[in-house]
Design brief:
By secondary structure, the chain is of the alpha/beta class. It has seven helices and seven strands, in the order ααβαβαβαβαβαββ. It has a single domain, classed as Vaccinia Virus protein VP39 (Rossmann fold, 3-Layer(aba) Sandwich). Strands 3-2-1-4-5-7-6 form a seven-stranded mixed β-sheet, with helices on both faces. Bound molecules: S-adenosylmethionine.
């Protein structure tokens, strides 16, 4: 998708963090394997990852809802979604910690991508637990580089005895996968 390439160049030139190409490739395989229909993203930034996921899941009628706390980033995201002709994305300028996610989402959610503030990952997990099923696939980004910010995540995983995998996708970073 041409506009997605342009958006990556734009983000890189302004140091806006977005998913790596390796994460993109990983998501492509994972999404095609599980074919999720109802998807959620926490931390949409300017729309890059939601456009990417939306493009893959559109093939089987999937849709994604994205939450982004920064209003300027959310607005740029809306514009990017339109430029990319993505009509299966809904985005909200909300803090995922206080948004009425349960009301806004069809449940259970099939796929969740967590890419917000690293220190809040455990709190996001507490929230998404309420809209998940035992089969919900969860991908959590940047878990190697920011390992020391993930105290709440590891506390939650231990408390709930949740099994997970960590996949090193880049020389210095990777993702955590639950049910993947
Ligand atoms: C790494 S960026 C996301 C990049 C995006 N997923 C992509 O690849 O295009 C993290 C984003 O999470 C947002 N964020 C941080 N805390 C949040 C929260 N509590 N709720 C929603 N968004 C949050 C930040 O404003 C930032 O834009």
């Amino acid at each position: 998708m041409e506009s997605l390439k342009e958006l990556r160049v734009y983000c890189e030139s302004r140091r806006i963090p977005i998913i790596s190409l390796a994460t993109e490739e990983f998501l492509w395989k994972l999404l095609r394997k599980h074919k999720p229909k109802i998807c959620l993203e926490i931390g949409g930034a300017v729309g890059y990852s939601s456009i990417y996921v939306a493009g893959v899941i559109d093939t089987w009628g999937g849709k994604i809802t994205s939450f982004e706390i920064s209003y300027p980033a959310y607005q740029l995201g809306l514009w990017s979604h339109k430029e990319a002709h993505c009509y299966n994305i809904r985005s909200y300028p909300y803090n995922a910690l206080s948004a009425p996610i349960k009301k806004l989402m069809e449940t259970p959610v099939d796929f969740i991508f967590i890419d917000g503030q690293k220190s809040q990952y455990g709190e996001y997990m507490e929230i998404v637990e309420k809209i998940s099923s035992p089969h919900t696939v969860i991908v959590i980004d940047d878990v190697i580089k920011y390992h020391n910010k993930l105290i709440s995540l590891y506390w939650y995983l231990q408390k709930k005895q949740i099994k997970y995998k960590i996949l090193k996708l880049d020389p210095d970073d990777g993702v955590m996968v639950i049910n993947g």
